[in-house]
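Task 17 of the worksheet. Students: predict the tertiary structure of the chain below and write it out as structure tokens. Keep your answer in the requested format; marks are given for formatting as well as content.
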Amino acid sequence: MGKQSGKSRSLSVELVTNASKPSHGGALLEALAHAQQVWIAVGFLKDSGFQWFSPQLESLVQSGGRSRVYVGLSLYITEPQALRNLMGICAGGADAVVYLCDPPKETFHPKVYCFRGRGESTVFVGSANLTGAGMASNIEQSACVRGGEDSAFLSDVVDSLQAFEKQKWCYLANDVLVDRYERKYDIMHKAHAKADAAAMKLIAALRDFDLAVMHDHVDSYRAIPAEQEDFERRRRNYKEAARILNKLATTSSGSAKTFLDLYGRLIGAAGMGRLWHSGSLFRSKTKVAHSRRGFGEVLNAIRSNIDTTPEDLFRIARESKAENAVDGLGVNVITEMMNTLAPSRYPVLNSNPLGSLGFFGFKDFPSPGNFKSATYQVFADLLQQIATEFGFEDLGRVDHFMNFVYWREYAKIKGKK
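Model answer:
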């Protein structure tokens, strides 16, 4: 327990929490029960908190004790009825006042409770607002400083609170001010209720990751040497793929054979190797070759905007494809190009990672061909979170892991059938 000298005796300092005995609210009530003077400054007051101390405060006020309560109106969290109840108690005393604190640009946010009685003083400074949750159920912590009745520390704290009264945004509470605040409070809470309902509907549509299951799969993935070797091969392949894309950007207007020689190395052919990880892309290579000039336009649109957001680049690539009427160029090829040129920013989009996300409990995305640019941004953000969670170096590694999970689970399902 810390010590600090005061006028009449040293100060004692201890930590008060809602997990302690008594709780934060209980400790306040003990101090209030022995007080003759009270100063309280809180950002938020609710009736649930008012009920905690109203009998003791009413007893102090009716006996002629001094009371000053400074209540914040910021963010429209303080309840109008709680203000009226507090004002009603203070109206019965000769030296009890309520102040309303509403700074125009800042949030009024103190949580200070000062009590002075015969021979002692107690000051609480911490995190708890004057609400039921703040008094009992929230995880709150406050420093409780006890000293003599004439404690210099108490005087300094009281002086700092009473300085609020000199501010233009500090008003003596009255019914007119509370009525005006209540109108704003009602508007804000109706708007919040509508927004909260909409947000909860969206949240309800999501399923959180089962991180425990995902961690198990990551551990299995990392424990298989062949998978790590395969990823290193993938990394080398994509570096080579980037060089080929740069060539295609300048030679796509040449002959079909020249184009197919280069493009074929990216997508492979039936029974043949390929640089890109996605399969089945070779099925549309003839269509793409017929539209190779348009392919070059799409590729150059991607290269020119490679530093933009996933949402914008996906939109730019899709719009360029539509403008240049490139047959056979789906989102799988487009995102393979994006990922090859910037693997830390843009994920490959096909059914494999979507299937793995579904396995891990995330909501179902639409099929790849129905992705909008905003949906691709959500997809990219999600895979970035996975990369961060598991320390994957880029989205190429995430794609490799997702393919591992997809084929592993697919094999299990196929085996059961």
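Marker's comment: Residues 339 and 346 are 5 Å apart (CA to CA). The chain is about 55% helix and 15% strand.
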